[in-house]
Amino acid sequence: MTGDRPPTIIRRSDEMRQRVRAAQAAGERVGFVPTMGSLHAGHTSLVERAASDCPAVAVSIFVNPIQFGPQEDFDRYPRDLAADCKRLAPHSVRWIYAPDVSEMYPPDHATRVEVAGPAEPFEGQLRPGHFAGVATVVCRLFHCVPADAAYFGAKDWQQTLVVKRMVADLGLPIDVVVCPTVRETDGLALSSRNAYLTAPQRQQATALSTALKQAQSDWQQGHAISDIEHRMAAILEAAAIAVDYATVVAADTLEPLAPSDQTTAAIALIAGRLGETRLIDNLSLPPRTQSPC
Amino acid sequence: MTGDRPPTIIRRSDEMRQRVRAAQAAGERVGFVPTMGSLHAGHTSLVERAASDCPAVAVSIFVNPIQFGPQEDFDRYPRDLAADCKRLAPHSVRWIYAPDVSEMYPPDHATRVEVAGPAEPFEGQLRPGHFAGVATVVCRLFHCVPADAAYFGAKDWQQTLVVKRMVADLGLPIDVVVCPTVRETDGLALSSRNAYLTAPQRQQATALSTALKQAQSDWQQGHAISDIEHRMAAILEAAAIAVDYATVVAADTLEPLAPSDQTTAAIALIAGRLGETRLIDNLSLPPRTQSPC
């Protein structure tokens, strides 16, 4: 779908909220794609999905300081609003909400939305405060952009669980829609952080999706979870990727699966570091019918 | 103002939200009074204020388990929905939102809204988790009852600061209105917990407002803050009230005041225990013009 007119860039939450409410009062369903900018085809796939569901689409662009740790890449995270607007131009986006930090976080702000449960393992352990930063900004964004549905990429699987948990627990009146990961032709999941990779690292990085595809194949053949996990780690290490985790867990809760569990939907999750750059990826593993070896 | 028709009791958040949205779509401003039931004239003063501002008023009645500590009075907290409805009958209340615990907290709920800043001292120190429980339930209630304005009593002064902080930080589109404390003729602030007092304790409890009035007089006469605090504590102790705190701080931040500060609005805050019953109260101290002694 092609945009009829260029999106309006909105800086103030009051104006953003009024525009969304006015569209809803006119009977339009509003879709919302929250982003940190540096948009790629993964983001535009979310926009396309939102536009297919909703006549009015808002995209937010906000690099959220409170979801970055002190040693993380907040300062070097790529920011280019003009390029982002250009990338959105072919798509049906009515509003780009681009607040600055002072609009999102008032002086003396002191509130955090803390999620336990699915926010605790993996990224929660390795990036203390990250998911509180995500949940807090998403909660605030859902007040600034009170859309009917919000669209998130499955690439950040744990994040989607955290957002869904928060929405259910706080009774936020919004549908959370999780959309498929978009990949390069060689399998690498699109990520704004791929821009950090050197040419050799970019080659190495294909090991992430290779490991996940191996896990999917091994899972379908009934291998034991511990064997699947070891094989994923071995593939990453062979590509000189430092493994943060390579695991198979329950898709909805991220809890360990019993070896005999044949019916729970599972997910393979991996995180690894190439030099200064940290990448994550995942692949769904449908309930399997064969017994584990 | 007298109610034209009895309020509708609503149990489900979806229905509650739809009714509020429909009233707003019809151009009506909606006022909201969140309560834990056991309604008294303090609550009905909030309802009266809401009704004077808004043609449509919602009152919620929900004893929120997560704002009580494990040793606190959740189990014995008074609950009588029929009596509460009767007390609201003479007032202009359109809806009573009375969810049960399972409606408010889904299975596996794992989200807390944590406020630092004004939530940290006093009640925050003495009742760990209390304000997270308050902020979480108020945030959720504001999603279930998306009113234009919410009304809180100044008697729970620190709570009003926590709610205002959360509303500002999360960008909740609701006005927080703080209304004066309602008192018995002998000065005791109305509280659902007054019902726990024995007849002799009820007599002792007047010392709370006596101490606050003394503080106000001492403040106006320019006494030093430490002297004012000691005198409040002495009045409470003379009435055999175990003092949790008796303090004078900045009204907006609850931070200590410099002895030479003449311009900051202050507040006297006290908390004390009579047997098993814990009571709090406060009194505003306007900026004083006289120098401290």
Spell out the key features of this protein.
six-stranded parallel β-sheet, Rossmann fold, Pantoate--beta-alanine Ligase, Chain: A,domain 2, alpha/beta, 2 domains, 10 helices, three-stranded antiparallel β-sheet, homodimer, 293 residues, globular
Q: What structural class is derived from the secondary structure elements of chain A?
A: alpha/beta
What is the level 1 CATH name of the largest domain in chain A?
Alpha Beta
Q: How much strand content do the residues of chain A show? A: 15-25%
Give the biggest beta sheet of chain A: 6 strands, parallel
Q: Assembly type of the shown chains?
A: homodimer
For this structure, what is the CATH homologous superfamily of the largest domain in chain A? Answer: HUPs
User: From N to C, what is the helix and strand string of chain A?
Assistant: EHEHEHEHEHHEHEHHHEEE
Mean pLDDT of chain A: 95
Could you tell me the radius of gyration of chain A in angstroms? Answer: 20 Å
The 3D shape of chain A can be described as globular
Order of strands across the widest beta sheet of chain A? 1-4-3-2-6-7
Q: Could you give the distance between the termini of chain A?
A: 48 Å
Largest chain-chain contact?
A-B, 33 and 33 residues
> Count of helical segments of chain A?
10
Question: Count of DSSP E strands of chain A?
Answer: 10
